[in-house]
Design a protein that fits this description.
The chain has a domain at 59-187. It is 35% helix and 29% strand. It contains two helices and nine strands, in the order ααβββββββββ. The strands form three sheets. Strands 3, 6, 7, 8 and 9 form a five-stranded antiparallel β-sheet that branches. It has a two-stranded antiparallel sheet with strand order 1-2. It is rod-shaped.
């Protein structure tokens, strides 16, 4: 019986020590939980926007690569060609070697880029050195401004190499989209 009383006393002490959460502790835990949920809820729209911009950048890059591939595939003697979209694309005049022909370029941190934003609003692409392209596969109908410049190395009558600087950026849409710039050189 003594051992039974001892067990009852120990259970009684355990029950007295267990009081549960106070109202203040519950409110503090609820506030912490709500702050975490609000923070996570704010990440959802940001991630949707980043996903949209990444898709746009990927589309612009793929289109720029396709266009540049068509230019690089042309012989050095060719001054212009018609691309698969039906645009007449100028590839530079060999009688003006070592000069930038086509769209305006700038150099930032030793990287040559096509200049899209001067003067404001955007000027039309230099004739034969740019066009606008609407992506038929994009449900939102994204439109891209495509421009390029050519720098020819040669003796003034024949080209020995051509450097192509091609830039693509989305026109319109929500916000500013960084241009995609590709730079390559072909030679004999």
């Amino acid at each position: 019986m003594k051992s039974e009383k001892k067990m009852q006393l120990s259970f009684k002490r355990l029950r007295e020590g267990q009081r549960g959460f106070s109202l203040l502790e519950m409110m503090l835990a609820t506030v912490i939980l709500l702050v975490g949920l609000v923070a996570i809820a704010q990440l959802v729209p940001a991630s949707i926007l980043m996903n949209f911009r990444n898709r746009t950048d990927s589309s612009a890059l793929v289109f720029a690569q396709r266009q540049l591939d068509q230019m690089v595939d042309q012989p050095l003697t060719v001054n212009s060609f018609t691309d698969v979209l039906g645009n007449t694309c100028q590839l530079g005049d060999p009688t003006s070697p070592s000069s930038v022909q086509g769209s305006t370029v700038t150099s930032i941190n030793n990287q040559t880029l096509i200049l899209f934003n001067t003067p404001n609003p955007l000027p039309a692409p230099t004739s034969g050195y740019g066009f606008t392209y609407t992506d038929p596969n994009d449900p939102s109908g994204a439109t891209y401004d495509v421009r390029w410049a050519v720098i020819i190395t040669g003796n003034g009558s024949a080209a020995s190499s051509k450097r192509f600087i091609l830039g693509v950026r989305q026109v319109g849409g929500n916000g500013y989209f960084q241009p995609i710039t590709l730079d390559t050189m072909v030679g004999k």
